[in-house]
Amino acid sequence: MKMIMRYFPFGDDSVTLGQIRQVPGMSGVATSLSRLAAGEVWPLEDLLRLKREVVSAGLELEVIESVNIHEDIKKGLDSRDLYIDRYIQTLRNLHEIGIQCLCYNFMPVLDWARSDLSHSLEDGSQVMAYRHEQVLALNPDTMALSMNSKARGYSLPGWEP
Question: Domain 3-103: what homologous superfamily?
């Protein structure tokens, strides 16, 4: 088993690759090009740049999480074939840089959701939390407002306005 940590590249993470590298046993990262909209091809040049950044920090680019699936594919619209072709090209580009593990969300409308972005545990650590009863009280519009208002200035990939 390999120990990896989630990393948001290009200035979107408060934790640096150097800090991740200091964690005992840590060998790599799971990351993405989260600034790209669902349905865009992930350019090979951007992926190579990302891989160089990770490798130069002494880590491996192990997992991509995630290449979001365009809503037109999920809805089965006529335009889905265009987005399927783009997704396939992105998969080819990921293969070109050696990626063997890809996670993806097939969730409708939302990429990911949490009810609390900064929940304190007994040991003092901070984690995200999900409380179903709180999420049920939200609709997609109020959920987006809730997520972004709790972000405290941090970028939340998948929740861009």
Answer: Divalent-metal-dependent TIM barrel enzymes (3.20.20.150)
Query: Which residues lie closer than 8 Å to 28 by C-beta, 6 or more apart?
Result: 2, 3, 4, 54, 59, 60, 61, 62, 63
Give me the residues paired with residue 102 across strands.
Answer: 64
Question: What's the pTM value of the predicted model, to 2 decimals?
Answer: 0.77
72-109 per-position pLDDT tens digit: 998 999 999 999 999 999 999 999 999 999 987 776 66
d(CA 136, CA 146): 13
Residue ranges, comma separated, of all CATH 3.20.20.150 domains in the chain are 3-103
How would you class 27 by CB atoms within 10 Å of its CB: exposed for 0-12, middle for 13-18, buried for 19 or more?
A: middle
Query: What angle do helix axes 80-96 and 44-56 make, rounded to 10 degrees?
Result: 40
Helix (H, G, I), strand (E, B) or coil at 21: helix
Each residue of 9-33: pLDDT tens digit?
A: 888 788 999 999 999 999 999 999 9
